[in-house]
Amino acid sequence: LISRLRPGRDGDAPGLITLLTACWLEYPGCVVDVDGELPELHALATYFADAGGTLFVSELDGRIVGSVGTRPLADGAWELCKMYVDAGQRGSGLAQALLAAAEAHAVAGGATAMKLWSDTRFTRAHRFYENNSYVRSGPIKVWTDLSNSLEFAYAKPLAGVVVQRLDAAAAESAIPRLSVVLRDCVDAGASVSFLPPMAMERARGFWKGVASGVAMGTRILLGAWVDGVLVGTVMLNLDMPQNQGHRADLQKLLVHPAIRRRGAARVLMQRIETEALAAGRTLLVLDTEADSNAEPLYRSAGWTEAGRIPRFALMPDGSLSATILFWKELA
Ligand SMILES: CC(C)(COP(=O)(O)OP(=O)(O)OC[C@H]1O[C@@H](n2cnc3c(N)ncnc32)[C@H](O)[C@@H]1OP(=O)(O)O)[C@@H](O)C(=O)NCCC(=O)NCCS
Description:
The chain has helices at 13-24, 34-37, 44-50, 94-108, 123-131, 168-173, 175-187, 200-216, 264-278, 294-300, and strands at 5-7, 54-60, 63-72, 77-85, 113-119, 135-142, 150-157, 161-166, 219-226, 229-237, 247-255, 283-289, 304-314, 320-329. By secondary structure, the chain is an alpha+beta fold.
């Protein structure tokens, strides 16, 4: 598949226009007017080259069956554009290969993040971006074009360990990745409310509840990306009794088993303290399985053990494990 990718040429214009038109016409109300609204399609390789970026296409039997462009923006991020895959090639890995090529090109060009706009009707594309660790970032762009387009903003950090707070839109769009992280942590033995084997549907149900808590302001949720992959999370439950408004519970510190010991959890813990203080919470409380990977992390991050409760949680092997209660007062 990768070998079928090649740099785009201006001469690909007829094939690109055919591809884009077929993709747009899958959705109700989308109208293609190349001369009026998409004149760059006539010389797309030059368009991206002039912007400091590049265009990749995939050709099969003389037809253009895939495209993606990328170009630098002013803020250190690069934009992903013109991501289209022929209906017959979907599910083949071609989309993944195109995205990987564009991201690698952007990283080589010094990109710190990737951003993109996607029409609100392109729900299949949204799942694709979400499975690839992109999250929605709030604003919706309103166009006055023939298609009456509304576009979601998606973005993700690309390089190193980066922690971001997820707002309601981001939390909702992070559900596919966070479900994978939770399932894989549980299946690897983490004692975090669930037992293995964890069904994806159960994981998605959990994160849907969290996303609505974020929307209602009762939860603060963070995501951690390592080299462009959403691999970690932690949250605060702010929903406290009337006399404990200065307090929050720290929950679900999770880092994907394949990306451990890269520092993601430590950065998540630092950032969540900043967010707690900003929300007026000066006392944090958590419980964690005794002798888990997390216990030394909490101790080294200045948390105090309040005590242990034996036989607290059921383990996959049928035994009951102790839990340790920790607290930390913030300055
Ligand atoms: C706990 C967890 C979040 C740590 O994630 P991580 O990204 O690997 O952590 P970091 O790389 O940031 O490591 C931070 C510190 O945690 C401690 N730590 C992490 N994994 C450890 C392990 N296997 N053994 C001992 N200490 C460990 C170390 O002190 C480490 O610092 P160091 O690398 O400088 O020695 C991860 O192991 C996990 O998801 N575990 C399962 C879920 C869980 O138990 N969550 C806690 C629920 S309350």
